[in-house]
Here is the input.
Amino acid sequence: MIEELKNAGGLTKNQARSIEQAIIKNLGMKKNGGILSNLINSISPNRGLYDEAVEWGEDWIRKNDPDLAKKLKLPCK
Amino acid sequence: MQIENNKLKLIKKSRTKIKIGDYFCFNIKDAFYTGIIIHNQLIEKYGDNTMFSALITNYNEKSINKISSDKLVLALKNRDLLIPPINLNKVGWTKGLFLNIGNVNLSNLVEDVIEDCRFFYGLSTIYNMEYKEVKNVPDYNLIGRSGIYNHLGLESMVQISLDLDFTEPNPEGYNPYEYYDELKTKYSNLELPFWYHKAKERLKG
Here is the structure.
């Protein structure tokens, strides 16, 4: 199923990738036992900026799409 | 392991324009189940030919020729659905797994069923058939997810309803009806549909 993010207009490509990776991290890819059909990461976990990017993505989701944050079971900050 | 017998079967590939009121069928386990398009552009910015909101009924026949629009309309009026309302993309038609049969005027169905249809994004975001956010959920049988499914998404939901094995192993027991657990916290007075119970039973643990 494809579902649109709320309030996602105006994001840069890298911001969008950070959000996508936050979703991938929390829901997982099918090939790894998760539920997403993505075949590759949007940001490699080997990159130095990975943790920071994912944290930014998770924060964005908390602030802009609380319904998605709930689905991802993101803890409140 | 692939369970080929439980898959949607090829009927006929088509590239027809899909319109509101079109009714169609798909073939699973040698039965032709029927559905109807209740909107073909619920989210205007997606453009046309992208997302088709449909109701899929329990009404089925052993051959396409026997499908009756009157029986389909009756099933819709009785809210006799096989799965919740669903937004489909067109791949099922282009791959030949869904086949349009005819068109019916939906005006008689608006009050009976379509007005009560809802699409769930989250507990705080529930859309009606005008894609407006609403606060009421009249019937759990008539609330589906707001995202767009392809034929495989429909197939796995139908497999749950008909007690058929999934075509592919279901990772982590993913349950397409988890949203009802959220709904229950806010709309607790409604009766849960049979597909919720079936999914809960087979995907437990």
